[in-house]
Amino acid sequence: MSARQALRAIGVRRAAAAALLAVVLAVTLVVVTSPFLGEPGGGPGGDGRRDAAQGEGPTDDGPGGPREPGEPGEPGDGDVAGPGATAPLGAPPPPGSSPTGGIEAAPTTETTEQPGDAVRAADEAQEPTPRVDGPFPTSAESAVGRLVPSYPADVVPPVPGSTVRTSSLSPSTERVQVALVAAGAGGDEVVAFYLAELRRQGFEEVATSALPGRSAVALRRGGSSVVVTVGPERDVYSLFATLLREDV
């Protein structure tokens, strides 16, 4: 056999071997992919119907067939709402839940201060208003150089530092009349003292007049009144008061 014939035979064998290998590969590919090629929905590009069908359960809604929206179902067919489920509109809330569906606020023990509390507290902090409650005598009394025993010094006290010259008190069924003459305090000091003291007790200043060479101040609280006059001596003042009794 010549060399040319030998080379041709070798080429024929290689071509045959290549053709046989191609046939083997094609058969193998068909065997491997046949389960996917024969079923719809399998493999890449499928529409997923088989997978969806495997996950679906029975489609009927019970013995009565499909229900219309809002139609109540039969007992035991899955209508019982679990925790966290939303009840249909108009349905009563499940036992133990808040009517509004929210978190129920815990009761508070704090108290709210009323506007009147501050007023009462301020009143309690102030000194109590002196009372015209005696005891008073059954008849008039007077004294020189001192206050009579029944003189209401907590209501109409003498100016501090002054000297009492005379004092008197005359009681009646509903009122007492008090008179005082004292010395040792200037006119401005006397007026300032009684304005401050009597305003603290609820008296209000009212208009009054005085004789020439004298100054006066008048105050009133309900049916009680006080008039203080300074002069004519520069350091002498007099007081006259009509006070409603608070012991009757």
Account of the 3D structure:
It is a single chain. With 248 residues, the chain is of the alpha+beta class. Among the domains are: 1-55; 141-244. The chain has helices at residues 3-37, 49-55, 115-125, 187-200; strands at 141-144, 163-171, 175-183, 204-206, 215-221, 224-230, 236-244. A hairpin with a 3-residue loop joins strand 2 (163-171) and strand 3 (175-183). Residues 98-116 have a biased composition (Low complexity).
Task: Let me know the average pLDDT.
Answer: 73
Q: What sort of overall outline do the alpha carbons produce when their principal axes are compared?
A: rod-shaped
User: Helix and strand succession?
Assistant: HHHEEEHEEEE
Strand arrangement across the biggest beta sheet? 1-2-3-7-6-5-4
- Residues in helix, %: 25-40%
Radius of gyration: 58 Å
Put simply, the count of helices is 4
The unreliable regions are 39-46, 48-60, 75-83
| Count of individual beta strands | 7
What fraction strand?
Answer: 15-25%
Largest sheet: 7 strands, antiparallel
Distance between the termini: 164 Å
**Protein structure class:** alpha+beta
